[in-house]
Design brief:
about 675 residues; alpha/beta; six-stranded parallel β-sheet; five-stranded parallel β-sheet; 26 helices; about 40% helix; elongated
Length: about 675
């Protein structure tokens, strides 16, 4: 197309986007109008994608890190032939539409990841690039590059300010992720004004220091210059940042290059005047000529041909490497191999026991052997989290098939990168850190939960049992805060065998994340011949022990290391003639998912005498102990002292629990 034709195509993108925002009377007009050329160059000139098969495994991935510009993405997807109609564009930001206010993975065809919180997309794209490199090293053979694609993103001034982007960029440069290419929509505007009120650094030099290949395109509307820069980026072994100088709200006569157009509709008068200046009819909305539409829709045939060529290559690959092909298909279908869990450890009863983080380590070794798609890492805490897969190397520039990732001290980026590993496909990720530091990665964990991303979070050092590290490292409120998050399974196992079952439950959950809450201190391994099987974990709560048949007089509900405390109370309670039930409740969410019959069987409504034991916030336990029950927990920050002393100081002793039970029962009897 000549320059005039290209300008027509760009104006179509700009005004489709602006019409959608205006019709909704809600959204962001500025970035879609300013970054139209970036999206056009990617989807029409550069990206390998198939509009009629958005999930083609070897497509290039795209991340709109500035997710507020979602109408730009929906517009380019519609124009190039994805299953997004004009009616869908007209339903932008409306109830139950497939064009929500920010892109959501699994909702809109062609959306490769959820974005919205700035920086999330930037870091998620790094995970996608790691996945591509790892799978290519694992499955490609000479002449058969069945995994060979790029990860692109459009990032913003806001992304550049967020710390998560700096963490992710630093790691990407260290790992030399050369197939990661980001276009920086540099319009120098934020909500509060021009960027120099808060951002005066030389971003180009910063990324050069991160070991990125950096270029600048002075005119962000120049498709040819952007195209040329991308071609140059492909030749460099480093990740690439292409700084495109753009004008927010480009084409609006009065509101372009102003902060006021960032997050609002243009207004009908302003929008119509811009259309008139561009020679575009003001009616109908979403105006497009047949020639421009045909130009965009050429991507349907191009994409079909690209996939056809890949399919032919893969057919030959499948004939030559049938076992590899079978494994490749299994992983991308997210299916588990038969009997994958048959060699997981079984721990013998042991009064001394071991920390659940150590039991987790033993379990991870077997999972790593059974599930080669498992790739994981820690925020520089692998020796403490016990998450290193001993039989496998680290992922790096010279070891792309490595399965251990050195994230460095970067919790914030780590979790988003893990999300990228999962949404790419073919990888099952886990991320690890101390439980108290999960607050750093909370934003990415939230994206996992709302987007049904099955990232696994290994969070160790779970309580005041951390001891001498003191209150800065004792997460007294953290477990309860995690339980507030929808679609997140929070599992705090009681011993080594519950830890094995917790990992099985985490692997089985493919529609959202799991947080495994593990101890640093040793916990006795429960005698499962005397007490109930740890398999009860899969229902969230189960009767671990009851003194005798019939309705109990008392129920002790406990999680994690406090289950042992509950069991230690039994002899004295039985001496007092109390029919005592101990319920291990490792996962509230799994228990809540059971039917009422099961829940009433475990916690009979008629039993008023209930006490919960957990070394953390008690707020929330009233849900299970009821109005007549009591809770033993930690409702203030911890102390710096040996763990056993701290537990005693906060009342986690048999004597105190018995005293609390006696007072409760006396009150309830009265």
């Amino acid at each position: 197309m000549n320059k005039t034709d290209i300008e027509q195509a760009l104006n179509t993108i700009r005004f489709f986007s602006a019409d959608g925002v205006q019709l909704a009377n809600s959204g962001h007009t500025g970035m879609p109008m300013g970054a139209a050329a970036l999206a056009y160059t990617l989807y029409v000139r550069q990206m390998n994608h198939n509009p009629k098969n958005p999930n083609w495994i070897n497509r290039d991935r795209f991340v709109l890190s500035g997710g507020h510009a979602s109408m730009l993405l929906y517009t380019i997807l519609h124009l190039t032939g994805y299953d997004i109609s004009i009616d869908d564009l007209k339903q932008f930001r409306q109830y139950q539409s497939i064009t929500p206010g920010h892109p959501e993975w699994g909702v809109t065809p062609g959306v490769d990841t959820s974005t919205g919180p700035l920086g999330q997309g930037f870091a998620t794209g790094v995970g996608m690039a790691i996945a591509e490199a790892h799978l290519a090293a694992t499955f490609n053979k000479p002449g058969f590059d069945i995994v060979n694609h790029y990860t692109y993103a459009i990032v913003t001034d806001g992304d550049m300010m967020e710390g998560i982007s700096s963490e992710a960029a630093s790691l990407a440069g260290t790992l030399k992720l050369g197939k990661l290419i980001y276009l920086y929509d540099s319009n120098d505007i934020t909500i509060e004004g021009r960027t120099d009120i808060a951002l005066t650094e030389d971003v180009a030099k910063r990324f050069e220091a991160y070991n990125w290949h950096v270029q600048t395109v002075e005119d962000g509307n120049d498709v040819e210059a952007i195209d040329k820069a991308i071609e140059a980026a492909k030749l460099d072994p480093r990740p690439s940042l292409i700084i495109c100088k753009t004008i927010i709200g480009y084409g609006l006569p009065n509101r372009a290059d102003t902060s006021g157009i960032h997050g609002s509709p243009a207004g009908w008068d302003e929008l119509n005047l811009a259309k008139e200046n561009a020679g575009i009819p003001t009616e109908p909305l979403f105006y497009i000529t047949d020639e421009v539409l045909a130009h965009f829709r050429e991507q349907i045939a191009v994409g079909a041909e690209l996939q056809k060529e890949w399919n032919e290559l893969y057919t030959c690959y499948k004939e030559k490497y049938p076992d590899l092909a079978k494994e490749f298909e299994r992983r991308n279908a997210r299916k588990l191999p038969e009997n994958w869990d048959e060699n997981l450890p079984v721990f013998e009863p042991d009064k001394k026991g071991l920390a659940t983080r150590v039991a987790s380590w033993h379990t991870i070794q077997k999972i790593a052997d059974a599930l080669p798609e498992v790739v994981g890492g820690s925020a520089d805490l692998a020796p403490s989290n016990n998450t290193w897969m001993d039989a496998y190397p680290a992922f790096g520039p010279e070891q792309r098939d490595g399965r251990n990732i050195h994230y460095g001290v970067r919790e914030i980026a780590m979790a988003a990168i893990g999300n990228g590993l999962f949404v790419h496909g073919g990888i099952r990720p886990f991320n690890a850190t101390f439980l108290v530091f999960s607050d750093y990665l909370r934003g990415s964990l939230r994206v996992s939960a709302l987007s049904n991303i099955a990232n696994i979070f290994v969070l160790t050092h779970d309580s005041i049992g951390v001891g001498e590290d003191g209150p800065t490292h004792q997460p007294v409120e953290t477990i309860m805060s995690l339980r507030l998050m929808p679609n997140l399974n929070v599992i705090r196992p009681a011993d080594a065998n519950e830890t094995v079952e917790a990992w099985k439950a985490a692997i089985a959950k493919t529609d959202g994340p799991t947080a495994l809450i593990l101890s640093r201190q040793n916990i006795p391994t429960i005698d499962r011949q005397k007490y109930a099987s740890a398999k009860g974990l899969h229902k969230g709560a189960y009767v671990l022990y009851q003194s005798k048949d019939g309705t109990p007089d008392l129920i002790i509900i406990a999680a994690g290391s406090e289950v042992t405390l509950a069991l230690n109370c039994i002899p004295e309670l039985e001496e007092k003639g109390l029919n005592t039930r101990v319920v291990s409740m490792p996962c509230w969410e799994l228990f809540e998912a059971q039917d009422k019959v099961y829940k009433d069987e475990i916690l009979p409504p008629s039993v008023k005498n209930r006490i919960s034991l957990e070394a953390g916030q008690t707020l929330g336990w009233e849900r299970w102990v009821g109005q007549y029950g009591v809770s033993l927990g930690v409702t203030e920050f911890g102390l710096s002292a040996p763990g056993d002393i701290i537990f005693k100081e906060f009342g986690f002793t048999v004597e105190n629990v018995i005293s609390m039970i006696e007072k409760m029962m006396k009150k309830n009897k009265g």
